[in-house]
């Protein structure tokens, strides 16, 4: 037999007899013959473990391992060794949604910790148990605003948002019949005047901004929350999680919903996923929030325990009345960022943020010194920035790759560069050297 | 289990000044103090401060209060809790894939393209469809993506009125929720007494609503584990009225080696890689829900996520299929189906089997046969925990009052299954001799039954709220 199948011939016979059929094929006697699959799959023969390994190593060797200065929503932060090791604990890894609380306290307990930490980081009252990623979390926030807004059906999103997020929002909005409008950008920042003007036209359920925005700029959102609330619209902030160790929180800006990607909290880039989306909101909105939520309670022995709660909000209960269909989320990745925050604490998050900030500003200074790069906007930035380049940017980008560097993201008239605590000064100097050629 | 440590939250193990990290020395001149104060947070985040070993022990102890497939039999219906092979984990963790930025330029990520092309080709072969997108992050996300494909298709044809989706009344709650998020409306088709779609009712719906029907969504086998043998007639009805057929891949496992959705007449489907293709469920994710379509529909794939979905999950699925190979992948369905039928036949004298006949990978009991004891499906499920088994899916599908949905996968041995059967019989016996014992179960788990009502009535969902809560 095959290593994943325990059935011996003798077992098979015992079982077939019990079921009252002669062969495994008879188990499918109810399928009309003309739709049965009778051929052999055109799939290679079973590979041994050694061969599987060789195959993946061969494929892996075709990928270029580049020193990463790219960001735009995905950052090359460091993953402490503790995390991958614990994440492989199979009691976590091979369990499912914690519906049976009595044998799922491990999962329920860490989700409660995750919710607590995300609420702290964002300065919001509450958090759900996770979303897929930052872009779909933003889409869920958009739908949540429309559902909360009764008749209002318009959502405004900053023109300074990540174009990939915008595209996901557009997809969801199209099918939901939500009117999505882009806010104008002045000097690299979302225009408050435009926000006010459009809010005044009425029918707006929510306003979505991004921090730092697509140019890496840390925007000043003074007046945004008030403007939204005056017109009964929700103020939604999409933030890079790790940066909130230092930056003013959505809670402090007066946001109603905070969403974003938790990838910056030490999750490997892994060519796009899995990551973890987060969604936090004010207490007032708890019953409008999509996804799972874990709450504290007691068991019948009087012990503190944790349990999935407020399930009446969820898709499997609301069925066609649901305003979100999220079911499986990214639980294991929520554990990832929970352990990250447990190890780092607020001090560690700050120190990693300082290194990222310091490195990015050093890189920016050095690039500008070459005389060929110009910081596009004279605005505060964090660990990512947009510079224009006076040469052929595509050629330079290719030259970076040839030198083993992912030289940021080719963006508009130049580059978006991001730096994390993983980058050394030598690596930065090396990039600048190539850029100055 | 270290119960001393267990009860505490990581916040309660924190002591100011402790550290669990180390970082390179900071020699940069620039500091965040340069940022205008009004752009910086005023209040510190109250995060725990712990040394590294405290963190390791805490989460190790937490894990021991969990039950996974590696711990024991996990017959959770409709979830396909199969073995998650270890080699897949190692392959997914290869640094040559883990360290890639998703926006790295073409030509530097040829290996990842190889993974996606190969997996796509294998999934096409296994399903009989022609193209796959890997953007959806989970099964429900796949459903939404597939419905968007269908909606886009009708819009492109100018069929703007096609906004209704036919769903069997036995469908999982996610189907109607996905339709609603896609801006579509559900119409329910009834089931017959034998649990399959009532063709006469479907004919009536098609007659009334034909020009408005965008699609019909189905699992096959359905939620009761029964193969919808009238599927050729069903697909013909829907196709003839201009609708498309959507296959919910939640129940794909028993079809491996037996029947392909494309051959049944389906046009669009999603696959739960975390069910049929053995990627770990991770306590509720990450999953992966690739969507496959028939030739001609690939241009309607929507942009539902920015990159390549949960890429590492796809690596695991690929490793799984390559390990099984063509010859063993076709044994998956028959063995899973045999296991399910064997359990059903071994227990139907003590548990109520509402629908006789062959099932596929799963089946549903309507509680204990003897209803006089007052022992419910909930009680049986909780008592199973005492005996070291995960509970089946309970109170779903909604067609019966006491649904108990059992799905053993192909990985379970006769010994394991016989052990489970013996315990299920013993519980049925206990229900008669000592019903209180069952009604108050579980007794041997780290915690007893929890107060759901308190949790919902008085939500405490963060540590900050917990500190403020004096109740």
Question: What is the CA-based Rg of chain A, rounded?
Answer: 25 Å
The helix content of chain B is: 25-40%
Q: Kindly identify the CATH topology of the largest domain in chain A.
A: Aspartate Aminotransferase, domain 2
CATH topology of the domain at 86-97 and 109-325 in chain B: Aspartate Aminotransferase, domain 2
Number of strands of chain B: 10
What is the CATH superfamily of the domain at 86-97 and 109-325 in chain B? Type I PLP-dependent aspartate aminotransferase-like (Major domain)
Shape of chain B: globular
Question: Class of the largest domain in chain A in CATH?
Answer: Alpha Beta
- How many structural domains can be distinguished in the coordinates of chain A? 3
Nearest-angstrom radius of gyration of chain B?
A: 25 Å
Residue fraction in strands of chain A: 15-25%
Helix run count of chain B: 17
CATH superfamily of the largest domain in chain A: Type I PLP-dependent aspartate aminotransferase-like (Major domain)
Tell me what the structure shows.
- The complex is a heterodimer of chains A (437) and B (471).
- Chain A is α/β, with parallel strands linked by helices.
- Chain A has three domains: 9-49, no CATH class; 67-78 and 346-436, Aspartate Aminotransferase, domain 1; 82-340, Aspartate Aminotransferase, domain 2 (3-Layer(aba) Sandwich).
- Chain A contains 14 helices and 17 strands.
- In chain A, strand 5 (185-186) and strand 6 form a beta hairpin.
- In chain A, helix 6 crosses helix 7 (163-176) and helix 12 packs across helix 14 (425-436).
- The longest helix of chain A has 39 residues, at 331-369.
- The N and C termini of chain A lie far apart (62 Å).
- Chain B is of the alpha/beta class.
- Chain B has a domain at 86-97 and 109-325: 3-Layer(aba) Sandwich (Aspartate Aminotransferase, domain 2), CATH 3.40.640.10.
- Helix content of chain B is 39%, strand content 8%.
- Chain B has helices spanning 3-6, 52-63, 86-92, 95-98, 110-127, 139-156, 174-181, 199-209, 231-240, 261-264, 273-276, 311-347, 377-386, 414-433, 435-439, 452-457, 463-468, and strands at residues 131-133, 164-168, 185-189, 213-218, 244-248, 268-270, 291-293, 363-366, 393-394, 403-406.
- Chain B has a seven-stranded mixed sheet, with helices on both faces. A three-stranded antiparallel sheet of chain B has the order 8-10-9, covered by helices on one side.
- In chain B, 59% of the residues are buried.
- The chains are: A alpha/beta (437), B alpha/beta (471).
- At the A-B interface, helix 1, helix 2, helix 3, helix 4 and helix 5 of A face helix 2, helix 3, helix 4, helix 5 and helix 6 of B.
